[in-house]
Design brief:
The complex is a heterodimer of chains A (195) and B (192). Chain A is α+β, with helices and mostly antiparallel strands. Chain A has helices at 2-15, 17-34; strands spanning 49-50, 54-64, 67-68, 71-72, 77-88, 101-103, 115-118, 134-143, 151-162, 172-187. Chain B is mainly β and 192 residues long. Classes of the chains: A alpha+beta (195), B mainly beta (192). Chain A: Keywords: Membrane, Transmembrane, Transmembrane helix.
Chain lengths: 195, 192
């Protein structure tokens, strides 16, 4: 009698082994997912930040109207300008910097990609060469009605280098993720002659 | 017992062979890499679509240019390298769209993008029998001058196509690597 029961239990466990494993894995994943997420660090605003491809140093943020480095701003719009010093850390000229700085909420999501301008001669989005530091301006435009905060919250992103990507086996920078956040004080107006 | 040992040995040998094949397999990037045609500054380097011969290399601290009727001065923290090269098409109209300054340590400086279109800047269109002189402009730190190679190709991604790799001549340098022949302002509208 006991022999028959033992056989039945063994059969149940054998048949249900896959289900049991799946339930265990799902439960563990759910448990780990429910753990509080680690906060991304707040980066010092006047320090040099090392992202994957770039060394960046945020310099200042201000609100521009009329013209920002030869970029016309419509009369009913205002431009939020972030000036940074950037150095290409890679071995090749690159311009993969459009998502390097992103506006954090509450401003995030209200605007298109920023215009990125070389402040030296107002070139739009030039590739930066390895090891050559340049001053760049990130320009986001908003309707004048949008109230811009005194402290501009920004997300700094980074990417990971892969010697071989899964699709083509070529080296590249992938998997953008948040490196940290900074808060830049917003100056009311550009200094004369700068914009 | 003998049979068991033999089986294990065969399995091990198969694993070693598989690992060797996996690690020595050329990657896709190597399979479709451009095919370099090497040359020096005295040569006319012949690729599949065009011939290229470097006429002159000038180093400058600033570039002066007239763009849309306005005088513009382009500054840099490093040096400007102005490469004047004669480009000729072989058997069909083609263009030379990409040039890279390959520094001695392997850093790749692409042609500058700080200019609006000019007919003598890349992409340079050439037809057979009508060679043209094109200007290729690079922005580089002084240390990248010595031992550099210039790479000309049809397009930026020229998979399986030939590209011209031209080793540059030595230029007399001063102590920090800046060429002695560097000029302060170079006018792009003055032909070289």
């Amino acid at each position: 009698m006991f022999g028959a029961i033992r056989g039945k239990v063994r059969a149940w466990f054998t048949v249900g082994a896959g289900t049991l494993a799946a339930v265990t894995v799902a439960g563990l994943l759910g448990a780990f997912g429910a753990l509080p997420q680690a906060q991304t660090p707040v980066l010092a605003r006047d320090s040099q930040i090392e992202t994957g491809q770039w060394l960046v140093r945020p310099l200042r943020a201000y609100i521009g109207t009329d013209r920002v480095y030869d970029l016309p701003v419509k009369p009913d719009q205002q431009a939020l300008v972030l000036e940074v010093e950037m150095t290409n850390r890679t071995a090749e000229s690159a311009k993969d910097y459009f998502t390097l700085f992103q506006l954090a909420p509450p401003l995030g999501g209200q605007t298109e990609q920023p215009a990125v301008i070389l402040t030296r001669d107002a070139s739009m989005t030039p590739a930066l060469h390895p090891g050559m530091t340049e001053r760049m301006a990130y320009v986001w435009t908003f309707p004048k009605a949008v109230a811009l905060p005194g402290e501009l919250p920004l997300v700094v992103n980074t990417k990971t280098y892969k010697p071989q990507d899964n699709l083509y086996g070529t080296p590249g920078w992938f998997n953008e993720r948040e490196l940290g956040s900074i808060e830049m004080p917003v100056e009311a107006k550009a200094a004369e002659g700068q914009s | 017992m003998m049979r068991w040992v033999f089986n294990v040995a065969a399995l091990g040998a198969a694993a070693v062979v598989c690992y060797g094949m996996q690690s020595s397999k050329p990657r896709y990037k190597n399979l479709i890499a451009p095919i370099p045609v090497h040359g020096s500054m005295v040569d006319k380097v012949e690729t599949r679509l065009f011939d290229v011969h470097i006429g002159k290399v000038v180093f400058a601290r600033e570039l002066k240019v007239t763009e849309f009727g306005k005088q513009k001065t382009l500054t840099t923290d490093g040096l400007w390298a102005v490469v004047a090269a004669d480009v000729a098409a072989r058997d069909r109209t083609t263009r030379v769209g990409a040039a890279t300054w390959l520094g001695p340590t392997g850093l790749r400086f692409h042609q500058t993008e700080r200019f609006s279109s000019r007919s003598d800047l890349p992409p340079i269109s050439v037809s057979p029998g009508l060679p043209q002189r094109g200007l290729f402009l690079f922005e580089l730190p002084p240390g990248e001058v010595e031992g550099a190679t210039l790479v000309f190709s049809h397009t930026v991604f020229s998979a399986l196509d030939s590209q011209a790799n031209i080793a540059l001549d030595r230029v007399p340098l001063d102590s920090d690597g800046t060429p002695l022949s560097v000029v302060d302002v170079y006018d792009l509208d003055r032909p070289i």
